[in-house]
Write a structure and sequence with these properties.
The structure is a single chain. By secondary structure, this protein is mainly α. It has one domain. Helices cover about 75% and strands about 0% of the residues. It is built from 9 helices and no strands. The longest helix is centred in the middle third of the chain and has 24 residues.
Length: about 170
């Protein structure tokens, strides 16, 4: 039982999320073309019958893939996860001493913190704007501002009184 859990943990630790997201990004246009092909009516009858059940899902995924927010999130996740995956791989080396591990961790933290600077973000944004055009996604749009629910309003004394009277 314990051996099985250790093997499962090793499988989980060896799974590289950054590479997985990277493969999605590498095949972004190919996936969109595949979805277009699946939605066409020119398919063979046996293939078409299998796709009918998932047609709405294909449309949903294709719609999401046309949004800039998904492309932005995938690229940002890939950058961060590749750094953390590299750290995870390095820390699992057998010959690594504690001082080296600590130095590697601090270097990784510095790398991640440097990504938070405005200059780095502007470079990333310019890169994303170029990719947006190449990947044929929508332009970035700010989300609509929603009204804060009344229960979250600060200083609404009448609302608090009405709650106290109900109890």
């Amino acid at each position: 039982m314990l051996l099985r859990m250790i093997v499962e943990l090793q499988v989980i630790l060896s799974y590289q999320m950054g590479e997985s997201i990277g493969s999605i990004l590498e095949n972004y246009n190919v996936l969109n073309e595949l979805y277009d092909e699946c939605l066409q009516d020119k398919l063979m009858p046996d293939v078409k019958s299998r796709i009918i059940g998932v047609k709405s899902r294909i449309i949903g995924v294709k719609t999401q893939m046309s949004n800039f927010s998904l492309l932005f999130g995938l690229h940002l996740s890939e950058r961060i996860l590749k750094i953390t995956d590299n750290l995870s791989k390095t820390l699992q080396l057998k010959y690594l001493c504690a001082a080296e591990a600590q130095a590697i961790v601090s270097h990784t933290v510095k790398t991640l913190m440097s990504m938070r600077h405005d200059e780095e973000f502007l470079l990333f944004w310019k890169h994303m704007d170029i990719l947006r055009v190449r990947m044929n996604t929508n332009e970035p749009v700010l989300p609509t501002k929603r009204k804060t629910p009344r229960r979250f309003e600060v200083g609404d004394f009448k609302y608090i009184q009405s709650i106290n009277q109900e109890t």
